[in-house]
UniProtKB/TrEMBL annotation:
InterPro entries tied to this protein: His_Pase_superF_clade-1, His_PPase_superfam, PGM_Phosphatase
SMART domains reported in the protein's UniProt record: PGAM
Protein name stated in the entry: Phosphoglycerate mutase
Molecular-function annotations in GO: phosphatase activity
Pfam families: His_Phos_1
């Protein structure tokens, strides 16, 4: 199999806050909207067969300018969403997040473990690669989703510090070959 999946971590978004927009409705900031426009240039060498995104607004808004420039729609997919952590916006969020990375099989009630996210991310990305062989696919997504996908495809250096240092936006290119998945991007 030969395929390329280009993961785009969303641009700068508003911060989560109690009583604020939920994860599905949290938008990009003005800076983030400008960053999304610049992705048109950053991805100028890509002629995708599909532009897909997490259904979360900030991910869709990140890839929309690129899709509009190509006259393509953005297809959203529930399996491309960010980690369903079960952690509410609170001062304890960072502590809970770090604990989750230390114990990736742990899931909060009604939520998803990081191990489950890794399985979901690698499965959906592998499926898209198979569906679009020899045609690049661009996907708007999220830091934890991208990180767990990279980990699932063999990048052992990924941890919570990697996610914290990941730029907004960030572009990771996953090239699926018969020998495995070759990955390039910031921090690798």
């Amino acid at each position: 199999m030969r395929a390329e999946v280009i993961l785009v971590r969303h641009a700068r978004s508003t911060l989560p806050r109690p009583g604020g927009p939920n994860e599905y409705r949290r938008p990009l900031t003005e800076e983030g909207l400008a960053q999304a426009e610049r992705l048109i240039t950053d991805l100028a060498d890509v002629e995708p067969s599909l532009i897909a995104s997490s259904p979360y607004l900030r991910a869709v808004q990140t890839v929309e300018p690129f899709a509009r420039a190509l006259g393509m729609p953005v297809r959203t997919g529930h399996d491309l969403r960010e980690w369903d952590s079960g952690i509410a916006p609170s001062p304890d969020f960072v502590r809970h997040y770090i604990e989750s990375w230390a114990n990736p099989h742990h899931a909060r009630p009604g939520a998803e473990s990081l191990h489950q996210l890794t399985a979901r991310a690698t499965a959906v990305l592998t499926s898209l690669a198979r569906e679009h062989q020899d045609e690049p696919v661009v996907i708007g997504s999220h830091g934890t989703f991208v990180s767990r996908a990279l980990l699932g495809f063999g990048v052992d250096s990924v941890n919570h510090s990697f996610v914290h240092a990941m730029p907004m936006p960030a572009i990771y290119r996953l090239r699926f070959t018969d020998r495995g998945v070759e990955i390039t991007g910031p921090g690798l």
